[in-house]
Amino acid sequence: MKINRPPPILELKNITVAKDGGKKKILRNISLRVPAGENIAILGPNGAGKTSLLKLITREYYPLADEKALFRVWGKDSWNIFELRYLLGLVSNNLQSLCAREISGLETVLSGFFGGIGLHGERITAGQRKKALSVLRFLEIDRLKNRAMSVMSSGEARRFLIARALVHDPKALILDEPTNSLDLRSTHHFKNMMRKIVRAGTGMILVTQNLQDIIPEIRRVALMKNGRIIEDGPKEIVLISRNISALFDIPVRISKRNGYYYAL
Ligand SMILES: Nc1ncnc2c1ncn2[C@@H]1O[C@H](COP(=O)(O)OP(=O)(O)O)[C@@H](O)[C@H]1O
Ligand SMILES: [Mg+2]
User: Fold this and answer.
1) Which of 35, 98, 223, 235 is the most buried (most CB within 10 A)?
2) Is residue 16 part of a domain?
């Protein structure tokens, strides 16, 4: 009997990205394979290359040509950029600053169907509106839908951007430093929302410099430093004091509580 397995979400082998006319290697020989449905966190200090890795995945940055290099998303190595970005729901802080405008939360979410930010006379189908409203209810933000993005708190606005990504039922939701600039309470609620999304079956690729962002449902962690992936595996093996001390160049002790890891 033949079992049809879905292709891996990501399959990268020997990928190098250089900037400044090839002089500066910002990603060095990256290999990373993420099977469909797997959740992974990529943890590393500022400047490690985490955002560059996401830009590589969304085809804003291109790898150096190399016959050993392999770059596949969902089993394919050539993509229409819009299809690719719908398949992978990327929420970055850059996107958040682009959206901080006089457009309502609902409009922001609906504009996800057209790949833009805000609506410019596009026709919205009943099905699209229904989908947007169901995502807003799922994320528990429907009561804020008529509020302008520019007056929402960071945490609220970020939820709408996540909703905007989720209207496509992406194969994976990709978050870049999602708790940046959120206070303790907003961080707590935001992480509960991340947990709810993952439990409902959307794969998550989380990029962060903060150990505490790694929700219990994410069981695999890759450590990134100086453009390289230096460790990759189950978090109970990767998130040990020795590795995290080396990653951030300071002595830390790791402790674990309620499925979360903390650096002391
Ligand atoms: N377009 C670019 N041109 C030159 N250097 C870049 C470019 N993009 C990223 N870098 C450099 O690559 C390194 C990694 O950056 P980044 O991926 O943003 O790190 P992180 O997200 O882990 O903080 C930094 O030194 C940054 O300055
Ligand atoms: Mg970054």
Assistant:
1) 223
2) no
